[in-house]
Write a structure and sequence with these properties.
This protein is α+β, with helices and mostly antiparallel strands and 368 residues long. The chain is 53% helix and 13% strand. The strands form four sheets. It has a three-stranded antiparallel β-sheet, covered by helices on one side. Strands 5-4-8 form a three-stranded antiparallel β-sheet, with no helix packed on it. A two-stranded antiparallel sheet has the order 1-2.
């Protein structure tokens, strides 16, 4: 049977000091390795869970940054499309002005064919202004940008509009086919209702938003008329157009007539009444360009709001992460000093044990 070994008080005290130093040494080296003084809830429950809450919110906001960045690109694509379209519109206005000052009907007809080509380019540009499947220039699309960490808690709806027209080349006569044209329908009413519908029913049916929520019916040759509160007013006027634009609220419905002689509603640039007809086209172009400027201004304001919120989100994320760090990060200078002190303390305790052991050996020599 083994008997218990008795240690003198000096050796026992130094052993206890070594044990404490070993525990502190492990804690300090872990903090130096991780850079944190709170690595788990055991270290400091209050600080640990508070830091987790801050980090989770920062992560949620950070996950929105990709969507915000893509929204910026979508708006930029639309703005680039509008800028390009306005260049074509300027060229269209130049073609009309050239025709107004030209007495040669054949030369005016050639300008009309060039005008139709520009109409096609405008419609194609609107179609090509998409970004990752979204297009703010067609179909009255809405791009909803999420800013908050919770879905729909903080957002911005970027409203697009609907710009449509012929996207195929003009025919052999330089005219736009009837199937590619639309029709402006104006009712003479106190409400001043005006909207654009399709001239060919095979193309499709406009949405109710296209008419500001009103219902509509076909009234011969596929031309559509608004019916509703203003339907009691007498008289309608249908004019074929090759290019149209309408916004989501239904308060802007603008069309530009194409040039030609074969299609119903097209303007004969070589005809005798060309001055009055082309003056009307100038008015259509100016109204169209004015609405483009309005839409461009709206997109610019939305882009400014998105970029401001993007910067704000980045700042909030940094603030949250900094707050979490203050609750958990270790002071590396302090921990380095602690490690040096622990190493010194361990060496001194080891030497003290060695001295106490030598004293015990001296007693044994006296007894021997």
């Amino acid at each position: 049977m083994m008997t218990n070994i008795s240690l003198n008080s000096g050796i026992r005290s130094n052993l206890l000091q070594l044990q404490r130093s070993s525990t502190s040494f492990q804690t300090t080296t872990e903090r130096l390795a991780s850079g944190k003084k709170v690595n788990s809830a055991i270290d400091n429950p209050s600080n640990f869970f508070a830091a987790v809450g801050l980090s989770d919110r920062a992560e949620a906001l950070n996950s929105r940054l990709d969507g915000i960045g893509q929204a910026v690109q979508t708006v930029k694509a639309a703005d680039n499309g509008i800028s390009t379209i306005r260049s074509f519109v300027s060229a269209m206005k130049g073609a009309v002005n050239n025709a107004l000052g030209n007495t040669d009907e054949n030369a005016r007809a050639d300008l009309g064919r060039q005008f139709n080509e520009l109409l096609v380019q405008v419609a194609q540009t609107a179609k090509d202004s998409s970004y990752r499947g979204g297009n703010l220039l067609q179909g009255n699309e809405t791009n909803t940008v999420q800013f908050g960490e919770s879905f729909d808690s903080s957002k911005l709806d970027v409203l697009g509009f609907d710009l449509g027209g012929p996207t195929s080349e003009v025919d052999a006569d330089g005219e736009i086919s009837a199937a590619a044209q639309s029709a402006v329908v104006e009712r003479a009413s106190t409400a001043g209702v005006s909207a654009i519908g399709y001239a060919d029913s095979t193309i499709g049916t406009p949405s109710s938003a296209f008419f500001g929520g009103e219902a509509f019916t076909a009234i011969g040759a596929g031309v559509r008329e608004i019916v509703g509160t203003a339907s009691a007013a007498a008289g309608t006027q249908a004019t074929a157009v090759a290019l149209y634009m309408a916004n989501q609220t239904g308060d802007a419905a603008i069309g530009i007539q194409g040039a030609g002689t074969n299609q119903v509603g097209s303007i004969d640039w070589g005809g005798a009444s060309y001055k009055d007809d082309l003056a009307a086209v100038i008015q259509q172009i100016e109204a169209f360009d004015s609405e483009l400027k309005t839409q461009a201004s709206s997109l610019s304001q939305n882009l400014a709001s998105i970029t401001i919120r993007e910067e704000f989100s980045n700042n909030v994320i940094n603030t949250l992460n900094e707050g979490a760090d203050k609750l958990t990060l270790a002071d590396l200078n302090e921990e380095g000093a602690n490690l040096l002190a622990l190493q010194t303390s361990t060496q001194l305790a080891t030497q003290s044990i060695s001295l106490a052991s030598q004293q015990s050996q001296g007693v044994l020599q006296l007894l021997g």
